[in-house]
Each structure stands twice: as structure tokens, then as C-alpha cells.
Amino acid sequence: MKRLFACFQRYGKLYMRLNYKSNAEKYFIDAIRILPRCWPAWVYLVECQECPMNFMKLSLPDHWMKLFSFVNLYLKFLDGSSAKEMLDKFITPELANTPYVINQIATINVYARKFPVAIDEYRRLIAIEPNREEGMDRFSDCLFVMGLNVELSYLAIKWFYINVHSPVTCCILANYYSSMRQHEEALLWYTRAVKLDPNSCNAWTLLGHEGLELRNYISSSHAYSRALEIDPRDYRVWYSLGQFYDVLQCPAFASFYYGKAHTLKDDDGRMTIALGDVFLRQDDVEQAVHCLWKSHCIGDFDNSTLIRLGQCYEKANMINEAAEMYLKFLEREESPKNPSQLAVKNCHKFLSKYYFDKKDFQKAIEYAQPCLEINALREPTKRLLNEVNKLDNECDREYLKKNVYRADLSETSLLDFVENINDCGQANEEEIISELLAETLNKKKLTSTSFAVECSFWLVALNCTGDMAFSDQPCRICQKHFVEGETPVILGRYCFHEKCVRCEFCCNLIENPRENAQAIDEKVYCKSHIEKNEIGAKPSCPTCFKEFTVADKRLIKVFGITYHSHCVTCFDCKKSVPANKWQGYNQRALCQSCFDLVKSIPCVKCRKMLKDEEQNVVLQAGIICPDCFHCAECLTRLGLEEKFYQLNENVYCIKCDRAFRIAKYKFDRTRGGPNC
């Protein structure tokens, strides 16, 4: 009987190697009927299945191994929820502490993206069986995702000394190097992993990720295609291919692969988020809203779907719906998995503009204040707050007038009348008081003639004091008094000499200021800036971040950007450069020493500085001078128009073809190329 079982199992494995899964399935079923407790036969039988329903239709003996096989089957098809339900049916407290069951529970949590729970289970597994190799590659994936680099480095060192030639160890070491941003080393270890285990779909997928990090799109595409050949049911490969074409800006291909991933895993919100982003970039707002709303209903893992939905509604000009989405997102702002700070501040920017249009100035100011922390949003926010203050002052002014007109003036003394106006706290109180007194005299039928006479007296007094104040005021800029016969330029409440009037925005002198200047909030601006609505965005120096003022007379422009004369710095060494002594190169301001280094490039072989008039040779590794342009094997001088081979900084003539190929073979062996 045992010989017959071994015969069936060998035939099954042979047909598996030949990729005849239907024939292999028959032999494995016969082997299980002979010896139901043989676990490898159940494992091979699960590998032959193309669908979970086919396994249920098989006539198999009713054995407890069958339940474990169902868990293994569901995990093969990445159905963690069904695997957990099946495991809960027969698990007992005794079985729950066995290494195999702990590994299965951890794998289920990995597929459900519950990485903290999975890490705890793997730690429990290591405590029971420290040298267990199965599942350690998934453990390293969890540590990489959660950013636990210290524990990942300890795991990598441990398995490096236990078994460095195992594909699992190669994946652990690759994850460690990838977490340290050493993507070339990670690519080398993933290459070794797929050579040791060519049928590892996870290793091929991660190899594609590393190729994408290094912008090696050809090798990345090959790795993803190979993973797809091994397991076309793995939604992670389809999703990775969607990301690959998304990076290459091919939205049609990206949406196709994201759609295939969503078909295989319809309960994962990442697929619909990615599809929504692709449709949003294509301005297909209807499809984007449909995908993103579905992701929101499923449950997004980073709380960013509401922001994307708000952007969709914003593009469709559905302002109220967009504001609702942004408000819902800000309610979850305290969540530890927020998007970037700039995305949150963009929500505040939109809501401040929304409430500004609704004339709810208090909420507009409340949402605008956080935007001042971001440099990119500071100037637009200043303009908005400036407009809010203007409209708010106008509203207060109208409210004040209504309250004055409602008052019973016959029973109110003039002193109380003026004090009530002062309580409003306006900036130009004398102007407002005189205006309100004039309107009160013109529009109200005053029963008390004494009060009318008193109002007229105060109105004349206010105008007289205003004229006296102007005549006695010095120039606001130079603080010098006006000479007899000199006419001051009156802008707002201040007087200026005609040659002292400067725009607060551009700091330039204003010609003919009586016609071309205007005072707004006690500041003077050009009419051109007022017409362009730029008065709220005052420019600042990009080095010291201080706003330009009228007193800043020494300003300098470098490639269209204005600096203080003492704030110009070298782009490379960041040292201060004296005014008018900087050198321009490739739209960058450089000091003289850095400019000389850039202009004089050294030869990659002899390290001599190259001159512009020399006929230099450009290679992939750099530029070499004509003296070094000779064959590395036979030392023959090569002409500028002669064909040659190149390997790093060495060149070979056509006659030394064999020497070039040997050098290239050795180079590929040392770098982990295709020949190693």
C-alpha cells in the first residue's frame, strides 16, 4: 500500500513539473485515498486547483486534514476572510499555540492588511520556534511596511548567519536594504532570490518594485510580467502593473490593470482609489466620483478618499458637495494616518474661500489662519484675509449706521451719541463720526433744535481739526515739515512730499502720485497693482523671508527673482555672494569658485581640467580628453570619428572585440548582471 501511495505521488509530482495539472490532480487524489494523513499530497492537490469551487467538488475522504487544506486553499487565492472562518470552525486552544496555526493566522492578518496584529503573531511564532524559516519573508514585509527598521535589521543579521543561500533570507536582506534606501543592493538580493526560487511570485513582484525605484523600467516590466505568468490570480501583481503604467503616464493601461486588480479583490479600497485618481487626471469626473465613493463605502485605509472626492466635486463646479467632503475629512484630521500637511491646508483654503463667498467672515478667518503656515498658500491667504477685513469693516459700518438711525435722538445727548460710535472701534473714527453726523442732519427730522445745532457745531469742529492736522503734519516718509508754498500730497490721513511717495507693494517711486496713487488701509499703492488686485500679496525675499518695505532701496534681481542685495547666495555652496559679483550658469547664481568648477570639467581618466576649445569625447561614464582616447587593450590612439566599444571609462577598438567581451563578462559577474 505504501509503495502504491509513493508511486501515485511521484506520478503526480512528475505531471506537476510538466504543467499537466489535471493529470496530476487524479494521481494526488488516489494517493490521498490510500493515505489521508499525508500532508504533502494535500498541499500538491491544492496547488493544482484553478478555482476554490473545483476543490469542493472533488470526492475526497472525510478527514481532518481536509479542513487544513481548505485554509491553505483560501490563502492561495488571497481570500483571508474565508480562511479565517474555516480556521475558527475547528481551532482549539491546544492547536492555537502550534507553530503552523500561528503562521496561518499571521498570514491571514497580512492579507487583511492588519500588520500590527500580524507582527505580534510572528513574534509569538519566533518565541516558540526561533529557527523556523517559513513565513519569515512575510514577517520582513510587515516590518518594512510599518517602518520597524531596527527589528528588520536584527532579523536580517540573524538569517544571514543561519542560511544565507535561502530565497527567504535573500528576501529579508533585500527588504532591509530597501528600507535603508540602498535600492541597488536590494535589487541584487531580490535577483538572487528569484534565481534560487524562480516560481516565487512575491519575489518577482518586489524585484519589479526595486526596478521602478531605480527607474529601470525595462527590468521592472519584465519582473512584473514574470510574476503574472506564475500567478495570474494575484491581485497585487495587477495593481503593481497599474502603478507601473501610472508612473509612465499611460492612463489607459493603468486603468485596465487597476480594473483587473479590482475584479480579483473587490473589497480593497486601494484599487478604486487608484482608478479614481486615473479618471480624475483624465477629467472624467463622473467615473472618478463613482470609484472614489465606492472606496469610501468600502473603507479607505488612509482617510484620503474624502479629499479626492472634494477635488472631483470642485472640478465639476459642485461647490456645496465639495465643501461637505472637506468638512467630513477635517472631522477625522486627528487620525494618525493623515495625508500630507499641504493637502489638509488645501482643504482649509477651499473652505475659507467658500465661507467668504457665503459672507460668513468669522468661519472664513477661522479656516484661513492655518494656511499661513504653508509658504505656497501664504500670499493667497493674505489677499483673502485683506478682503475679509475690508468687507467686515463695511458690514460693521452699515450696522453702525442702522443702529444710529434707530436711536431716539431727542432723548440722547451728543456725547453719548459720539461715545456709542467710538465703541465700534473703527480705524478712521473721525471720518465715520463726521459722516454719520452729516447723514443724521440730512436724513433725520430732529425734534430737538438744540441737538441739531450741537451736531452742526461738532461737524464743523471735526472738519476744522482735520484740516489743521494736515497742515501741521510732517511728511510720513522723511518726517520733514513742509516749506511755505509747498503743497503736500494727501493720501488717506497722512501727508507726503511728492518725491517720497512709494508703492508698498513694489517699493518703487510713484510718478504723479495725486493721480496714480491711492491709500488703502493707511498704506499707499500704485493704481496698477490695485487694478490687478495684488495689494494683499506683498513680495518677500526668498532667502531671509522678510517682506520688502519702502526703506529697502538696495534690491537686486537674479534671473527674475528679487533679493536684498546682501541676501544673494551661491546655489551650490550656499555662501553669500556680494552684489553684482555672481555668475549665472544654467539659470543658477553661483560664486566665482563654483562657477569655475562647473565650467572646467575634469577628465574621468587623467582628472585634468578640460578646456572648452578642445575636442573632447563624451562617454556614458563622463568626458575624456583626446590624450586619453585610446584602446584599453592595444593602446591604439582612436580618431574622433572612429567606431569603438565603451565600458565605464575604458574604450576598446573594433579589433579588440574579444577583450571587450571578456571585460564586460567580468563586470557583469561583479555587479550581479545577467551572466552571474
UniProtKB/TrEMBL annotation:
It holds the Pfam family TPR_8. The keyword Cell cycle applies. GO terms for molecular function: metal ion binding. GO terms for biological process: anaphase-promoting complex-dependent catabolic process; cell division; positive regulation of mitotic metaphase/anaphase transition; protein ubiquitination. Residues 473-536, 539-601 form the LIM zinc-binding domain. SUPFAM superfamilies: TPR-like. Keywords: Cell cycle, Cell division, LIM domain, Metal-binding, TPR repeat, Zinc. TPR repeats lie at residues 167-200, 201-234. GO terms for cellular component: anaphase-promoting complex. Signal peptide: none annotated. This is Cell division cycle protein 23-like protein. It comes from Trichinella pseudospiralis.
